[in-house]
Amino acid sequence: MTVTEDAPVGEIATLNVTIRIKRMNPEGTPARAPGESYWEEFHVEAHATDRVLDALHTIKWQEDGSLTFRRSCAHGVCGSDAMRINAKNRLACKALLKDLNPSRPITVEPIAGLPVVKDLVVDMEPFFASYREIMPFLVTTGHAPTRERLQSPEDRAKFDDTTKCILCAACTTACPVFWTDGQYFGPQAIVGAHRFIFDSRDEGQWDRLEILNDKAGVWKCRTAFNCTEACPRGIEVTKAISEVKRALTTGEF
Amino acid sequence: MSPGHMLYRGREGMWMWVVHRVTGVAIFFFLLIHVLDTSLVRVSPEAYNEIIASYKTPLYGLIEAGLVAAISLHAFNGLRIIAVDRSAWALRHQRMLVWIVWGIFALLMAGFLPRHLMHVFGGA
User: Fold this and answer.
1) Hey, are the CB atoms on A223 and B8 less than 8 Å from each other?
2) Which chain B residues touch A112 with a CB distance below 8 Å?
3) Is A172 within the bounds of a domain?
4) pLDDT value, residue B105
5) For residue B35, what pLDDT is reported?
6) Measured between beta carbons, which residues in chain A are less than 8 angstroms from residue B96?
7) Is A118 in the same domain as A138?
8) Mind telling me how many Å the CA of A243 is from chain B's nearest CA?
């Protein structure tokens, strides 16, 4: 194995990045009124392999402990750290600094359309309320079978894409319709409904379709595709919404 | 939007949603004015003639060009939206379809604008 002189084995290159964070403290700070939102810049030395989340950790642990954000698993599974990074919704734990043009300041804002609680933390309750409304659980009639409910691989494939959702809200808060109309169920709730509507074992399709046939339902979708592009799981969100629309117009699943 | 709010960096789909909105509202106001000026003929034919004559000024000629632009964009993007809602192929190629819409639009305007502007400014 050849070893170059300037980059010894195991050493990771570092890069200096500027992180611009949209901050808000509901209690105010000595310099800021309660609830005032403002931008603050931090300079961080990071590894070339670091993600935005690592930079936020560095800031919180070494520079300003008051910086507030959500994260849990830090590996793109729990869906806690959706943020607007360089004006696009992404998971901070899946956005590599080196992919974000680190020569310019990287902006980090809370996701839009939900009330900001503090800094990058938003109140997710309206988002979860929409999800609960579409009944995200198996609905059946009659007696529970004594064995598992069987399903063909073809039937399973119909809703495979929408099972990947981690409820991070990146799609819903990327939606221009949701920004202006908080009544809209939003892409995520429709994805959640799609997962059961197209499940051959489920019998609650028409209850869910009726909910989504509402004026705040699927017909509010204007196919801007922001949701599909924002989804960190690669779900074709707009396609799922279109399939629900088609189920409503044709009655076919 | 709150102060210091940054725009969302959406792609073609989001911008076509904006274009569709803006042209839709513009066409609505045109139709509103159009219904009003046409109904004026029942009230006073002289006033109607006066209004219609003012439409032949260069200013209205330019607004007219804008109207044709708005309607052609709205029409072809409308077809794109219908396609996206009906076919999985169109849904997956919606970004390419955006550029096809702009292509058709550019073609139509290239045919229409020279003739129209000659008419408005040259009296041809």
Assistant:
1) no
2) 8
3) yes
4) 98
5) 95
6) none
7) no
8) 8
What pLDDT was estimated at residue A195?
98
Name the pLDDT band for B4 (thresholds 50, 70, 90): very low
Residues A209 and A181 in one domain: yes
Within-domain flag for A2: no
**Best of B19, B77, B87, B91 to disrupt the A interface by mutation (most A CBs within 10 Å)?**
B91
Same domain, A90 and A134: no
Tell whether A6 is covered by a domain: no
CATH 1.10.287 fits B14-122, yes or no: no
| A203 CA: distance to closest CA in chain B (Å) | 25
Amino acid (one-letter) located at A37: S
CA dihedral B111, B113, B118, B119 (to 10 degrees): 100
Percent of chain A with pLDDT over 90: 91
DSSP state of B10: -
Q: Are residues A99 and A133 in the same domain?
A: no
| Largest distance between two CA atoms of chain B | 55
Query: What is the phi-psi region of residue A50: left when phi exceeds 0, alpha when psi lies from -120 to 50, beta otherwise?
Result: beta
State the Cα–Cα distance between residues B116 and B124, nearest whole angstrom.
9
pLDDT score of B124: 56
Residue B10 and residue A242: Cβ atoms within 8 Å? no
Q: Is residue A104 pLDDT above 60, yes or no?
A: yes
Looking at the domain assignment, is residue A8 inside a domain? no
- Please give, rounded to a whole number of angstroms, the shortest distance from the CA of A223 to a CA of chain B: 7
Distance to chain A for B93, nearest Cα, Å: 11
> For position A2, what pLDDT does the model report?
52
CATH number of the domain to which A188 belongs: 1.10.1060.10
- What residues of B are in contact with residue A198 (Cβ under 8 Å)? none
Residues in B closer than 8 angstroms to A246, CB to CB, are: 85-86
| Residue in A15, A94, A4 with CA at minimum distance from that of residue A48 | A15
Residue of chain B whose Cα is closest to the Cα of A107? B6
- State the Cα–Cα distance between residues A240 and B2, nearest whole angstrom: 32
Residue A213 structure tokens = 């046939």
